[in-house]
Amino acid sequence: MVGMDVTVIGGGILGTTHAWTAIARGHRVTQLEREIEARGATVRNFGLVWVSGRSSLELDLSLRSRELWQQIGAAVPGVGFRAAGSITLLRTPDEVAVAEAVLARPDAALRGFRLLDAEQVRLHNPALRGTYLGGLHCDRDAVVESRVALPAIRDHLERSGRYAFHNDTDVRAVTPTATGVRVTDTRGGHHDADHVIVCPGATHSGLARELLGHMPVRRVRLQMMQTAPLGEPLTTAIADGDSFRYYPGFAGAALEQLRNRQPQTETAELHRMQLLCVQRLHGGLTIGDTHEYDEPFTFDVDEAPYDHLREVVSTLLGRDLPPIVRRWAGVYSQCLDPDAIVYRGSPDPTVTVVTGPGGRGMTLGPAIAEQTLALLDA
């Protein structure tokens, strides 16, 4: 159906990409965000569009999402899209063996993989003057500026004349009507629509629970940090060999051998750590991260993971890091169904709840939204 009125509840990456896709399909959109500005995992993450480690189930969707991000970046330069690629730096023979096994798979070319020796790594990314044996390069990975991408997209959508954004606006009720569905906000406003898309992020209580009750999702907490400007370009995103442990695209016998023969450090194992590192447009580095699954989450952050990350990045760069200017924690929603990329539930034909992409929200957001709108338009 062309020209629907769609109300999107949630201003994070899923909410905003659903709004973008609905506008692109000719609909009218009202987007509601309970905060003054979205401040969940979307804006606290790396901004990585991470094709390299996605499972075979996710690969086509990841590649489609990367294509969509490139289109969004061309239309909205403010999102800061860069086809930077990534290098996973290999420091042990067992990590090299995982990279070699991945390169032997039929989908290696689709992922844009190639194995670089240490000198080739330095030629490709001269800032990496540290200690490593080589690197697994993926030219399909990309980066957007997570803290500014969503406002930039909203500014672009407002120029369509078919989009309105209401921040600081929480939702009291979603009520099907004879002609569609009505959203009532806590300011006393009413928003009538043909369809409502609810993207609650990691807020599993409140409206999402009222609509669907228990959902097969959990929350995951992570810690990250930001440095002052590095003073030189880091031309790709970088990861360490520990990242192999957390992405299903690297699963296999070589990874099991790595797990058995190469335990993580005590800190990295305790906090379920990997290194991911991205340079922001202002020159600083966003560095992380950890994984915590057991609630209730603490309100403070632990210093040991930051010490570990500083040591790893310094070893790979071959230099001391710039000063750390901020540290933070974030929480995202992860679907527990191993066969599902995201959780969608519909308590009514006029309402769709979309949540639980895990750490894949930035990577897969545009493609997840495309799927949802295709279902509505069918």
TrEMBL record:
<dbReference type="GO" id="GO:0016491">
    <property type="term" value="F:oxidoreductase activity"/>
</dbReference>
<keyword id="KW-0285">Flavoprotein</keyword>
<feature type="domain" description="FAD dependent oxidoreductase">
    <location>
        <begin position="5"/>
        <end position="372"/>
    </location>
</feature>
<protein>
    <submittedName>
        <fullName>FAD dependent oxidoreductase TIGR03364</fullName>
    </submittedName>
</protein>
<dbReference type="InterPro" id="IPR036188">
    <property type="entry name" value="FAD/NAD-bd_sf"/>
</dbReference>
<comment type="similarity">
    <text>Belongs to the DadA oxidoreductase family.</text>
</comment>
<dbReference type="Pfam" id="PF01266">
    <property type="entry name" value="DAO"/>
</dbReference>
<dbReference type="GO" id="GO:0005737">
    <property type="term" value="C:cytoplasm"/>
</dbReference>
<keyword id="KW-0560">Oxidoreductase</keyword>
<dbReference type="InterPro" id="IPR017741">
    <property type="entry name" value="FAD-dependent_OxRdtase_HpnW"/>
</dbReference>
<dbReference type="InterPro" id="IPR006076">
    <property type="entry name" value="FAD-dep_OxRdtase"/>
</dbReference>
